[in-house]
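protein under study:
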Amino acid sequence: MRRVNSLLAMLLMISALISCNQSPKVPSFSIKANIEGATGTVYLKKAVGRDLVSIDTTQLVDSKFELTDTLSFPGLYLIQMDSATLPIFLDASNIEIKGNIADSKNIAITGSKTNDVFKKFEKASMPFQEKLGNLSVKLREAYYAQDTAAFKKYREMQYSINEEFKTFLINFIESNSSSPVASYLLRGNTYQFDYDQIDKAVNSFTGDAKTTQDYKFVEDYRNKLKACQIGMTAPDFTLPDTAGNPVALSSLKGKVFLLDFWASWCSPCRAANPSVVALYNEFKDQGFEVFGVSLDENKENWLQAIKDDKLTWTQVSDLKGWKSAAGDLYGVKGIPHTVLIDKDFKIVAKNLHGEELTEKVKELLSK
């Protein structure tokens, strides 16, 4: 059976996030393929929501096929055959595909400068994805084995590699600032970056990168993110707690607290919860608080996760998942997402981890 690697899975999630809207049609593309040994039906698919939807289909004849269609906007698609899956970043180009089905990794796709940029990104980012994937496995093993020392070690390694990947990613985006791939990658990874990085990347875009729906999205997102930057007063909101009672974020004004966006279904969130519990237990007697906002949709799963992970602080949720009013207000595009807020209700830091977070909390409590 076909196997989708971790990088492709990540890119498909990006496509799922950005494929629900529509924009004017661009000129048509064409694909001419000659793949030795390939037989059967060819499907051109795109992620829509959580599903892969067939956009077009044709039959292989003597190992050859052709597809011609229009696009809502340039983006990542999949060409699926009986024994291979080819990711391809489509734009208005005349594309040729050649190779052998027995060596699908080396099938050549030519004719599209946009896809060339995408393949360059895919190749360069693979080492990061492999390292992060391996660490995720080790983190899960340490978590279920309740090996605190190993968990902390792998967590710090994960953060370090992820920071390296973020640096690579923003440099790649800015180095290819005229390509639709740049605005596509920035849109799918907005959760990775702070306001200054997003603002710089958006301002670097030129040419085709500024004509896409993705560019419009990140431009709007940047403007929303500006309202909750470090140094700004924390935007207030009110959501129901586990008993259904409305609780305002501003009820913690005057305290140092961590605003923690998470969900029961989020493995990285659940893996991080023991660290948040330890931080809370260390400083709660000094007035430190945590305010949890769940992006769950199922209340039973939310409540069970709170119980299982021993989360004893205030928890709220409107049970709207990614449509959470609080998540939208704070521009949350990935979880776990944390915001550290001081006694004056000012945002002082975002997504700090480990010793860095501990030291910052100590500093704020001492004032």
In short: Residues 152 and 354 are 8 Å apart (CA to CA). Confidence is low (pLDDT under 50) at residues 1-5, 16-26. The longest helix spans residues 113-144. The longest strand covers residues 26-36.
